[in-house]
């Protein structure tokens, strides 16, 4: 019994690295380490509190208001002792601190010292699905890129179509979609795009790889070598 050699996909040739206008390609042994400013820049994107997020609020010097865990309601509001109901959706934790200080000062708390920290995020998430190892919704805290988003989902799997990564985003009521090639990003051919809260990342499915695996599963053991290649 014999089988035809169908086609061998492009594995030949040297991989091209770089190409993005903002990227300089250097030898691996001279790649410099990031400095402190570079490390801080990766977390510089502000976080905006949304519905159902959980906050930890601490008012120094008032035992009843120490380490209070507060959940934002569906309308983007929260209730806090002495401060009443506050509109917090769309504000950063720092802005909520200022808002609480002003409200507590109005309620006769002298020079309130308030700290607001994010405990759990529900509203600011990215959805990652398709051919990744662990699809789901993941919080977006700090700066996130496409490579980091896929890494959070534990990476691609054996059926991933790396040149078919689609990012869906809504901007000012308009639904947008962009197609990316993960291999080109990994090679530095163009920049790793930023991912924002409410984005949906879909990793494509390589039907050819599935057919190949199914084919191997049904073909009995042969006495002659079998060579099948994917286009």
Describe the protein in words.
The protein has 231 residues and is of the alpha+beta class. The protein has helices spanning 36-41, 93-106, 146-152, 182-186, 207-218, and strands at 54-59, 68-71, 77-80, 84-87, 114-120, 125-130, 136-139, 144-145, 160-171, 174-180, 194-195, 200-205. Strand 3 (77-80) and strand 4 form a beta hairpin. The chain is elongated.
Give the helix/strand layout.
Layout lengths: L35 H6 L12 E6 L8 E4 L5 E4 L3 E4 L5 H14 L7 E7 L4 E6 L5 E4 L4 E2 H7 L7 E12 L2 E7 L1 H5 L7 E2 L4 E6 L1 H12 L13
List how many beta strands DSSP finds: 12
> Total number of helical segments?
5
- Average pLDDT, rounded to a whole number, is 80
Strand content: 25-35%
End-to-end Cα distance, whole Å, is: 23 Å
- Give the topology string: H per helix, E per strand: HEEEEHEEEEHEEHEEH
Largest sheet: 5 strands, mixed
How are the strands ordered across the major sheet?
7-6-12-9-10
Radius of gyration: 25 Å
Percent of residues in helices: 10-25%
What gross morphology would you assign? elongated
Which class do the helix and strand fractions yield? Answer: alpha+beta
**Which quaternary structure do these chains form?**
single chain
Provide the low-confidence segments as ranges: 1-13, 226-231
Annotation keywords:
19% helix, alpha+beta, elongated, 231 residues, 12 strands, disordered N terminus, five-stranded mixed β-sheet
């Amino acid at each position: 019994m014999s089988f035809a050699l169908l086609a061998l996909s492009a594995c030949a040739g040297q991989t091209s690295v770089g190409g993005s206008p903002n990227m300089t390609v250097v030898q691996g042994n001279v790649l410099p380490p990031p400095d402190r400013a570079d490390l801080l820049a990766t977390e510089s994107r502000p976080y905006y509190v949304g519905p159902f997020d959980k906050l930890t609020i601490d008012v120094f010097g008032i035992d009843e208001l120490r380490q209070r865990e507060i959940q934002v309601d569906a309308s983007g509001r929260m209730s806090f002792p002495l401060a009443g109901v506050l509109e917090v959706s769309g504000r950063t934790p720092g802005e909520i601190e200022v808002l609480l200080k002003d409200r507590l000062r109005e309620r006769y708390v002298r020079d309130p010292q308030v700290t607001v920290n994010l405990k759990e995020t529900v509203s600011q998430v990215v959805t990652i699905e398709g051919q990744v190892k662990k699809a789901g919704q993941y919080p977006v805290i700090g700066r996130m890129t496409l490579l980091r988003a896929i890494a959070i989902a534990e990476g691609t799997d054996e059926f991933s179509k790396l040149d078919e990564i689609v990012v869906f985003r809504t901007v000012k009521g308009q639904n947008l979609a962009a197609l990316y090639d993960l291999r080109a990003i990994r090679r530095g051919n163009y920049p790793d795009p930023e991912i924002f809260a409410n984005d949906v990342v879909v990793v494509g499915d390589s039907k050819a790889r599935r057919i190949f695996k199914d084919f191997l599963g049904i073909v009995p053991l042969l006495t002659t070598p079998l060579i099948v290649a994917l286009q």
